[in-house]
Amino acid sequence: MKSKFYTIFALAIGTLSFAQVGINTQNPQGVFNIDGGKNNAVTGVPTAAQLADDFIVTTSGSAGIGAIPDASAILELNVSQLASGSQKGFLGPRVALTAYNDASTIPNPALGLLVYNLGTQATFTFKGYVYWDGTQWRPLDGRSLQTGTISSLRCTDATLSPLTYTAGTPYQGTMSIPYSGGNAGVYGSQTIGPVNGLTATLPQGNFAQGSGTLNYTVSGTPTVSSPTTTTFPISIGGQSCSATVGVGKVLAPGEYQFFNYTLPATYVGLLSTQVGGTYDAILGGKLKLDLNFNASSNQGSGAVTYNPRLVNASSSNIKVWYSALSSVDRFRRSNVLLAPGGYMETDNGIYLNWGDNMNSSSTPVAATSSSDDSQEIETVDVIVDGIWYRIIVFVSVDNLNDTDPSNNIRRVFMTAQRMSAY
Do 268 and 237 share a structural domain? Predict the structure, then answer.
């Protein structure tokens, strides 16, 4: 009798070892299934709502909370079937790491270990999920959290876009400062100013590995107008310098700058006045390129309607040499001491008019070698403070292919190139 009992017990144990175990359910969906709400269907697959309170382990060892785990997942968490206001999230382990490469708070962290850093340590204030890459903790976007450093910060090459600002007119632009020797580490946010009514802000970020550019947002209502400068003291990544902006474009040796404007063909006055606060044809805070339109360009061949002008845009005297060569004439002067706001016109008047004034209904020209006095271009070589620039000015009148002169426009093209290093 005893031997029969042992046989039956052994068979029962063997059967249980291969059975599915269900707690609060008679219909387990894996080798182990806890139905917290005791609401699963007796047969078949429970609905999503019934699975909302389930914990399931499959024969492959995968686990699901609120779901039968997908075959591709070792762990699946599903809260989509929970009502809004009752849904829950995943809460990972929370620690207070002391540094980006802290390997002692969690001894011997495994490759890929994920934790939430509280950021409560003065030596490591980053807050958020980080993972261990084998040598350091990184946020989920993969960037480095080591303290950022650079080897040089070139404030002398700082640029501002738009180039200029006007007192009393709200301004928003970008100040870009190049650097080199970056270690890919993190730098904190900065707010500098206001200086002359302008504030420079930089969000937290990471230096590039090697060379890169810092882009500060400059905003506010300036109390001065370009070319009066604004200087921001910059200190970041172990380097400090002063970035001076607002003077206009500072050309590097050989660098070109292009200017392109459109205005009515009938406008009389200075180009800078017509363009207004967006006018940025200022070279190095010293020289403003301007055009003086003295008559409407809606005229036939032979009409002289404008003159190029070089203006001292700085607050001190400048020494100027220039030689101007146009397709019609040439002018030159040397050793001219130009007062602040003073100007020199580089010609006695440029031909600019509608010329032939042809449009789509006109008889087209098949070939021509003739010319008239309707179009002129000028090249100006100028030396300011020992630096040689070459300026080209080309303006055209466009009748927009119709016979209505009221909509005629002038297209203004100007280029400037720095020809010498000093």
Answer: no
Residue 171 has phi, psi (to 5 degrees) of -130, 140
389 and 292 within one domain: yes
125 in any annotated domain:
no
- pLDDT band (50, 70, 90) for residue 80: confident
Domain count, the chain: 3
The mean pLDDT value for 387-398 works out to: 96
Q: Is 355 within the bounds of a domain?
A: yes
Whether 250 is covered by a domain: the verdict is no
Q: Report which of residues 292 and 162 the model is more confident about.
A: 292
Strands 409-418, 343-345: pairing is: unpaired
Contact in structure between 30 and 58 (CB atoms under 8 Å): yes
- CATH number of the domain where residue 201 is located: 2.60.40
Residue 2's CB: how many other CB atoms inside 10 A?
Answer: 6
**pLDDT tens, residue by residue, 187-239:** 988 999 999 999 999 998 899 999 999 999 999 999 998 778 899 999 999 99
Q: Which residues on neighbouring strands pair with residue 307, listed in sequence order?
A: 292
The domain of 194 spans 152-245
- Taking CA atoms, 377 is separated from 72, 211, 267, 320, in Å, by 72, 41, 19, 22
